[in-house]
Specification:
Length: 204
């Protein structure tokens, strides 16, 4: 049973590490709409993408936790002779770190999808005096949800090109990745708890 628990930790560590790399990649892509670096250089990137929760939350924090989980599974280095209590403490700390990073990424992605993309739009249709400006045109849009009304996707945001599709695609990817990370962390916690119980049963 303990061997099975360690094998599960190896798989979970590898899976979490892979999702962390995907989360970081998705966040990096959000910084370059249509693969154009000029928006980043001009400071015309939305606050949710600039926050970089996919880089340091769902990315780095989860990757560090995944490394510890994998080391525990392979019983490598300082984990080769660690007792059940020390293993449980390490598992709790690594799970907590991964869960925190995944939750930050999940919440940020959800808020980003709710607020919509940062883009240039015609504010005259919003009863403003200035003709064009950068902002969040869908944030205060009443009675219409841009996520379901696809007719707004190409008619509101004028620049960057297909800003809504870019925004929705990659923040949806981050939302799904972080949700998968949360699920993997929960599985890791239960796997470690079962392994700890089995180790005590074997000793008794």
């Amino acid at each position: 049973m303990m061997a099975c628990s360690r094998t599960c930790s190896r798989i979970l560590g590898l899976s979490l590490g892979t999702t962390a790399l995907f989360a970081a990649g998705a966040n990096v892509v959000l910084l370059f709409p249509n693969w154009d670096v000029t928006y980043l250089l001009r400071g015309l990137i939305g606050k949710h993408a600039m926050l970089g929760s996919g880089l340091w939350g769902g990315g780095l924090m989860v990757l560090i936790a995944a490394t510890f989980i994998s080391l525990m599974g392979w019983r490598y280095g300082c984990f080769s002779k660690s007792g059940p209590c020390r293993s449980m403490l390490t598992a709790l700390l690594s799970s907590g770190l991964a869960l925190l990073g995944a939750l930050i990424c999940f919440i940020t992605s959800g808020v980003a999808l709710k607020d919509g993309p940062f883009c240039m739009f015609n504010v005259s249709s919003f009863n403003q005096t200035q003709a064009w400006k950068y902002g969040y045109p869908f944030k205060d849009l009443q009675n219409r949800n841009y996520l379901y009304d696809h007719s707004l996707w190409n008619s509101v945001c004028l620049e960057p090109f297909k800003a809504v599709i870019w925004h929705v695609s990659f923040f949806s990817a981050l939302l799904c990745i972080s949700l998968l990370q949360i699920l993997l962390v929960v599985i890791h916690f239960f796997n470690t708890f079962l392994g700890l119980c089995c180790s005590f049963c074997e000793k008794s």
